[in-house]
Structures are given as C-alpha cells and as structure tokens.
Amino acid sequence: MSVGIDIGTSTTQLVFSRITIENMASSFSIPKINIVDKKVIYKSNIYFTPLISQNEIDGSSVRKIVESEYKKAGIKPEEVETGAIIITGETARKENAREILDEMSGLAGDFVVATAGPDLESIIAGKGAGTNIISKEENCTAANMDIGGGTTNLAVFKEGEVIDTGCLDIGGRLIKIDKNTHQITYIASKIKKLADKYGINIKVGEIPDISDVENIVRKMVELLEQSVGMKNQTHEYEEIITNKGLKLNYNIDCITFSGGVANYIYAGGDEEDVYKYGDIGILLGRCIKNSILTQKFNLEKSRETIRATVVGAGSHTTDISGSTITYTKNVFPIKNVPVVRVHQRNNSIDCSYISETLKERLHWFKVENEFQQVAIAIDGTKSPSFKEVQQMASSVISGVSDILDEEYPLFVIVENDMGKVLGQTIYKMLDYKKDVICIDSIKVEAGDYVDVGKPLMHGRVVPVVIKTLAFSS
C-alpha cells in the first residue's frame, strides 16, 4: 500500500495505490524484484491548502484533511507501507513548511521525500504528466509547464531524459479574488510590480474591470512564452524567475501542460463565473490556450494535469550491489537519498561534461539554499584502465566540490562493475579526509531515491532499495 500526499500552493490532495511486486529472477539467482502492477485505488477530494496567513501553513488543518481522507478510503495508517509527501511551490517557501512534516508523522510508512525545491518539483511534475514518456516514444525534445497556484515549473526531456529545468513565479492564485464580491483580496508582489509597470489598474480591496485582469494575465502568459524562447526575454522575465530559467540551447519539439490551470488549457472551460475558484486560474488557462504556446509548438495531451505532481509513491526495485564496493565508514542503513544522475556521452569519459553536469544538477536538490545529501549516479566503464579510473574520480570530485565540506559521506553509485577501485581512488584523492561510499552494479535514474541496508556477506555487498515515484499511466 502506497500513499502520495501533495501539499501545494493552491491545493492539498492524496492518492492511495496498491503496488504489486514480483521476484523476476530464477530460484538460483540473486532476487530481482520488479513492479508488475500498480493500481490507483483511491483519489481524494482536492482541497485548498489551508493557511493561517500568507506566510504560514495551517499544519493542524492539513493533518485533519489527511486523516479524514484516510477514513473515507477505509485505510488505516498502519496499513500504509510507503509513500511520498511533497511540499511544493510557494508552500515550500512558507515559514513553517518543515513543521508540517511533524504534523504528518505516523500517517505513512517511510516517506520518500519531504520537500521539493523548484528543480526537483519540475522533474516530478514532468514525469507525472508523462512528458518524459512522450519524448522517448516520439524521439523528440518535449517541455512540460506545470502551472500551479504560485509557480510554473518547467522541465525539458530529450528522448526520455531530463535535460533542463526552470521555474517562474507565475500561477493561478497569485491574484486572489473574492468569489462573492469580486474584490481583490491578494496580489503577489511580483505580479503587482508587473501590473504597475504596464499601468494595469489592479488593487487589493477593489473590484477590478475584467479587462484589467485579462491584461495582467496576458502579460503573465507573455513571460511564459519568453521562458521557452518564443519571444525575446525582457527585464520583466528576469524578475519573474523563481530560481533559474531554461538554458534553451536546444530546440523544443512539443509541449505539455500540467497543474490545476492545465484543465483550462486543454478543455478551455465554459464557466460563466471566471472567479469560481477565487483566483485567476481559469483566465490564465484560457489565455494560454489561445496563445502561441499552443499554436507554434506541437501540443501533446498530458497523462495527468492537477494530479501530476504526485499520484502515487513508493514503487520499489530491490537489488543487491556488486561485490566490489567501497565504504570507508559503516553509516548504514541510510534512507531516502535522492539520485543525481549523469549519463556519459558516447560511452566515453568526458571529464568536463561529467564535472559541469554534476555541479549544475546538485543545485536541483537545494532546499532553502541548503544542499541535501545525494547519491551521485554515473555509468562507469567496463574493465577500466588505471587512467580511466583516475579520470572518473577527478571528474566526480570536481563536480561535487560544493558538497565536500558537508558532514555526510560522498555517496557514488556506478552502474558498471568498478565501485571498489573508483571509491578507493576518490578516497585517496581526497587525502583520506572525506568518507566515501561507492557501490556498483546498480541502475538508477534521476528522480529515484535509494535506501542502502546494512552490509551482507561479511561486508562484501549491501542491499539497495531503489524508490521511484510511481506515476499514473
């Protein structure tokens, strides 16, 4: 039994899934456990995320929502073996975001991830929307825009692999409007600044002309168009970036949309009351539907929209590491370590590419400007020469320079069988001052999380659980 809980800027929701796993190996082989079936058995109602103020989440109310949905689903907390709680968007920036995790204690097994920074959220949402699958099946470069209440998360996939991410402070609830009086109750500071720049008359406490609201929405959509290279990027675009924009050193073939606003991009919506949700989400979706975003890109239908960020969690693949591994300190078991994956190009060791890619992708996992512990995953080389081992070790050390002063060990996963010699080489190059874990014969991808159990077979191997967020298909 698996639960996914998404506490976002606009909405909070749950999904329960039943995961079936099977040992695919023969009786005389090391077990290889694969998922053979995943069935979503319950989808909760979608609630507005309760807030005490604009800067503080109402943690007790969130817990009550979660507990009530457990009861509706007929599921007891002790029946849930795994799951993910994702605190996303502007919600992750609230003052008490970390305290919410304490409120959730006891409502699932081992949660996969606590908070998702904008880069990781972009990847999760893109996979939830199925954009990675579209890019792989159609052999193309596909971009997903996950448009929520407070942010738009951007993820670009090429042939199934994520190659770029970005995030903008554009969302459906950055302007809140009373459903009954139509008075504006809240305008995010960046949106107010944008409106003032163009002389658009919107003020808290006043009832705006619909034309003024449509004008500011149009300006927001123009910034989305700039984000994917359809228009020249302006100073206003730079101002609206959450953490970083897309690099755009590639051509985008098609686009998908997810998040709550996406329903009104694909369907359009014929609601007479455009403020029925107390925000500008409907108007934003309609404007995007009629923009060049959907006209100049090949528009693909996403597999999930409002539930893309997390519709299930805890798909497990259990494996055993190779027997040539290195660990300089027995810190096991370690749990819920996110994977930073770098695929080598043309099966060669391109030191600068590995190093620079690692440096960039480490920042995907920063939360509140702090690095999390991560597992660096690389291909490695079959039967490497001494020189190749040295090159690989140097590339990894250079790429992770930003986290070498952190207390946790440097954790490396190599797909090919070279963990022991690579780990020993890295340890030596670090002058034996940094603990190193280097395991091999494990295949992981970006977006996975790993648990490593206590060493077996007199310390020669370690059990590894690879946890992938399970998305609806």
TrEMBL record:
<dbReference type="InterPro" id="IPR050696">
    <property type="entry name" value="FtsA/MreB"/>
</dbReference>
<dbReference type="InterPro" id="IPR043129">
    <property type="entry name" value="ATPase_NBD"/>
</dbReference>
<dbReference type="Pfam" id="PF06277">
    <property type="entry name" value="EutA"/>
</dbReference>
<dbReference type="InterPro" id="IPR009377">
    <property type="entry name" value="EutA"/>
</dbReference>
<dbReference type="GO" id="GO:0016829">
    <property type="term" value="F:lyase activity"/>
</dbReference>
<protein>
    <submittedName>
        <fullName>Reactivating factor for ethanolamine ammonia lyase</fullName>
    </submittedName>
</protein>
<keyword id="KW-0456">Lyase</keyword>
